[in-house]
Amino acid sequence: MWKTILFDLDGTLTDSAAGIIHSVQYALHTIGMEEPDPEKLRGFVGPPLHQYFKEYANLDDETAARCVAAYRERYAGQGAMENKPYPSIPELLLMLRKQGFRLGCVTSKETGQARRILEQFRLSGFFNAVVGCDARETNVSKEELITRAMRVMNVPYDRNNVVMVGDRFYDIEGAQAAGIASVGVLYGYGTREELEKSGATYIADNVGELGRILCGTGKAPWTNGPATFGRRIWNVVWPILLWILISNIVASIAGGIYGAIYGARLAMQDPSTWDVNGMVQDMYSVLLDYKVQMILSVIGNIVSIPIMWRIYKKDEKGRTNRLFTVRTDRKPGGVNAVLAVIMGFSVSAVLNILISITGIADWMYEMNPSRYDMLDSLPLWAEFIAIVIFAPIAEELLFRGIIFRRVRDYSGYLMAAVLSAALFGIVHMDVVTGICAFIIGIIMAILYEYTGSLFTSMLFHAGFNFYSIAISLLPVESMSDELANGILIGLLAVCAIAAAVTFMAFLKRNKSNELG
User: 7: part of which helix (H) or strand (E)?
Assistant: First the structure.
């Protein structure tokens, strides 16, 4: 229907009421007026500030200009942080860009301020242009801003292919005056009556309906229909159950194979020599052997990797014609790869050394000795293959590639990071280990979100697990307690600094990366 879509900012892309209202209260305070009731100031969200200050407080042009300056002073610092995107807005913008639409942001805010807000929420990369007021301007109509945006985007003579999306009558009337279509949204700060009265071409109740209107489709463009809460829970849980089932199937098959071999050997012996109780105990002792369990764990991961990869790719294919919620299948890049490995190793060192010097390690072993005896049952090269290669691949495909992305579809990044990390911690079946797993799960979700590369979180995970092998190479047991503790404390300090530096370097390197 349209080729160019212009979006208002406040009340359309972001829920900015708190920051705006607090900044208006500050501005009124500077001229001796107090308004403690925030509901009375909600009308300031969206419209040009200069005119609304005049109407609200019956001010002259000079005093209204002073209020605008004071408002911008406060909003540029604290107010802009009291803001958040509406749910599903990043997904909508990404879907529109993937379908070839040109997007612009048109706002009564100062342009630089609007850019900073969009960058803060990693939305700026979606827009071909961001147009607002000049820092010296205090009273610019929405029509003028829309016209400016069309000039910047080189579409001044193609107005039939342009639509303005906003939540207040200023947006709708500005679009009409500029000669373009408009869509009013009801999830913002305007009312249906207001939008209808101002002549909105279309009205959307929510972001999903907005997507249908903009794309001219009969259903939400990124979903196959609304998923019930129970369905969402099941979509998150069943991959984990499948992962556990694969481990049990592998163990059962291994037990069956061993039983068949054992039975064949018995068949060659005289039945009168059989000791049934002894045979059962032999079979159990073999299957419960720590080395055997570790080998079965590795086999389980090897079997699960292609299955989880297939689910991961199927999810991605399903998003191709709907939306991507995070960038996927990107190479991490050499620098990011190195930072991820160093960061993982350093974080692991910090956590493990703290656990060791506080005496928690002994308590952890007493609570779950088999877990640690399993790790010690293999030679170092086999342990490396098990926990540095296969475990990170299998677990990151499941917990970040599938669980994190699915929860992000439903509830956004924060909930996805917390829930995927929590489930990652729970499956470790150990309180302290689970807490550590939760912490690194949060970090790996951040790495994945910022780079869009699952390999980045895998490399962090591999670096984290590698510490347990590296520390075993140090002859700590042959050292005196004082020397060993001194080495560990020194290593703790170095790794804490390395973890902080690499994390900050990673964020700085990737802070400008956008979804899509």
Answer: strand 4-7
Q: What is the pLDDT of residues 468-481, one digit of tens each?
A: 888 777 665 666 66
Residues 6 or more apart whose Cβ sits within 8 Å of residue 177: 141, 143
Spatial contact of 155 and 142, defined as CB atoms under 8 Å apart: no
Task: Provide the sign of the torsion angle of the four alpha carbons 271, 273, 277, 283, taken in this order.
Answer: negative
- CATH number listed for the domain at residues 4-10+83-215: 3.40.50.1000
Please give the DSSP secondary-structure letter assigned to residue 408: H
Instruction: Give the residue range(s) of CATH 1.10.150.240 domains in the chain.
Output: 17-81
Say what the pTM is: 0.56
8 given a catalytic annotation = yes
DSSP 137-161: -S---HHHHHHHHHHHTT-TT-GGG
List of E strands, 40-172: 84-85, 102-110, 129-133, 162-166
Contacts of 251 (CB under 8 A, 6+ apart): 287, 296, 300
How many residues can be counted in the chain? Answer: 516
Q: For the chain, where do the domains classified as CATH 3.40.50.1000 start and end?
A: 4-10+83-215
Measured CA to CA in angstroms, residue 398 lies from 304, 385, 404, 419 at distances of 9, 19, 8, 13
* High-pLDDT (> 90) share of the chain, %: 27
The catalytic position among 8, 15, 171, 315 is 8
Task: Name the CATH superfamily housing domain 17-81.
Answer: Putative phosphatase; domain 2 (1.10.150.240)
